[in-house]
Amino acid sequence: xxxxxxxxxxVPDPGTASxxxxxxxxxxxxxxxxxxxxxxxxDLTVQPGEVVAFLGPNGAGKTSTLDMVLxxxxxxxxxxxxxxxxxxxxxxxxxxxAVMQTGGLLKDxxxxxxxxxxxxxxxxxxxLDAVMERAGIAGIAERRVGKCSGGEQQRLRFAxxxxxxxxxxxxxxxxxxxxxxxxxxFWGAIQADAQKGxxxxxxxxxxxxADAYADRVVLVSRGRVVADGTAxxxxxxxxxxxxxxxxxxxxxxxxxxxxxxxGVESVSLTGSTVTAHxxxxxxxxxxxxxxxxxxxxxxxxRGLEDTFLALxxxxxxxxxxx
Amino acid sequence: MTATAQATQTTPTTPTTPxxxxxxxxxxxxxxxxxxxxxxxxxxxxxxxxxLLRNRRTLIFSVLLPxxxxxxxxxxxxxxxxxxxxxxxxxxxxxxxxxxxxxAAVSIDRSSGWSRQLRLTPLRPTSQVVTKVLTALVLAALxxxxxxxxxALMGGRLSAGEWLGAAAAAWLGAIPFAxxxxxxxxxxxxxxxxxxxxxxxxxxAMVGGLFVPLSVFGTTMRHLAALTPAWGPSVLARYSFAxxxxxxxxxxxxxxxxxxxAAAAAWLFRRDTARV
Lengths: 322, 276
Known about the structure:
CATH architecture of the largest domain in chain A: 3-Layer(aba) Sandwich
Number of strands of chain A: 13
Strand content of chain A: 25-35%
Order of helices and strands of chain A: EEEHEHEHHHEHEHEEHEHEEHEH
Oligomer: heterodimer
CATH topology of the largest domain in chain A: Rossmann fold
Helix content of chain B: 55-70%
GO biological process, one term (chain B): response to antibiotic
Mean pLDDT of chain B: 85
Number of helices of chain A: 11
Number of domains of chain B: 1
Largest sheet of chain A: 6 strands, mixed
Shape of chain A: elongated
Low-confidence stretches of chain A: 1-17, 315-322
GO molecular function (chain B): ABC-type transporter activity
CATH class of the largest domain in chain A: Alpha Beta
Main location (chain B): membrane
Number of helices of chain B: 14
Largest sheet of chain B: none
Organism (chain B): Quadrisphaera granulorum
Radius of gyration of chain B: 25 Å
Helix content of chain A: 25-40%
Shape of chain B: globular
Structural class of chain B: mainly alpha
Structural class of chain A: alpha/beta
Radius of gyration of chain A: 24 Å
Low-confidence stretches of chain B: 1-29
Mean pLDDT of chain A: 85
Transmembrane segments (chain B): 59-78, 84-108, 129-154, 166-188, 200-225, 245-269
CATH superfamily of the largest domain in chain A: P-loop containing nucleotide triphosphate hydrolases
């Protein structure tokens, strides 16, 4: 399978300023567990300031990749570079931090104690009060972690990740198990933070999250990058729009003839509603409005959901493993 | 794969980035080296202690239970030295339980993902282990002081030097058990770890001569007892008046078991760190 890559913002000329050191470089990254290949020669470069969604179904290799980025596991083959150095060195310098999906907290400490302890492990850190304020946990500082809700625990993890003022923030499915309100609040905090120029990479299988919060969407399937671009570009890759219109008194023969127009992939008639999938919606719309009695014309892009399915579920569905 | 094919045929645009020649890219020359953190972090030590003290089960098994034993058994002893003897035995027992429980608590760090979280900080894994051992030492002092204090209140009489010697033997003799606790904590899940420690410590205390005098054992049994880990602190703590073995033999036993448990803990720790 070849990797489709969409041209993005040009890569700044390297070597001129330290800002041009990519936040993350992955080359041929591979992780095998026994004879299961979780990550299969993955290539990715993330520039400083990008907010990247790592989108893929469960078992696509997202967590395995992020574990290697964080230095928690060693790649079987390939290279990881974080801010121009090794993951472990980047962790030691506080350049990279992460909000993991679950766990990583001690129930018998309070929120404030957890933050204090984490801060004490770094050579230098942000003021605790400010960080807790930003993560929205200042009001629950004295609460035992075990008594916090899932959303509160996640905001605590976010606070812990902010302490070292990292250049690269990694979020592994950060809103799993959170309710809608909690999810919105969490992303609000992340977005406010990213606007200050922090590089953010988040793994998710929620399409709407990728669409709403990322500048760039990297679609992974079976341990490889299958698409890479803005949400709009990735969506456009499944190329095509749906054109729908009301055609009073349409006959099946008339409707079938639409299929002869350039770009039209399929046409159907339900009652008096014509639905067509096409790669050239402009031409079809023009035809329908000028050469037929159609009205109430509607053009919709195919959702990211359709793209996602088209790209991550090839002919044979892979055995999901991680 | 129509969608991918249709996307664009351009080759990946990214490799214009400078590539380091090796996979172990070193820090850029204009960056100062990462600051090495000290092995012992006072905040970490303090919060570890606070965590353990919040855990009622730790205190019940390492302090309350030995005190209850002293209260119930010293009544049966008529002479002041006999009362002190009971208190010393349970002080040794309390200290070894406290140390082992503290070490085994690392299983909670593992199962909760805390160990993993710590690996996203500059903290060295070795530092985590050293902090556990120090915490174990601090916590082991608690039953020693409390149990010997209760023993003295119950009428146990020894000279100040004898009390101090017994306290030191009980306290320092607990160090190997911190290693044993760590090894168990790295080996089995959190729920099992505490049960293993609870049962294991009672058994070791029994064969080490803490619950029944070594003199009631037969000759073979007494020789075997001398090869178990609680025997060292047990005979050393009672040395001033019981003289069951030489100081050298007791110290040797503690050191040998200390090294064995530390080696086991270190090996299991490495295995665990490689996997997390």
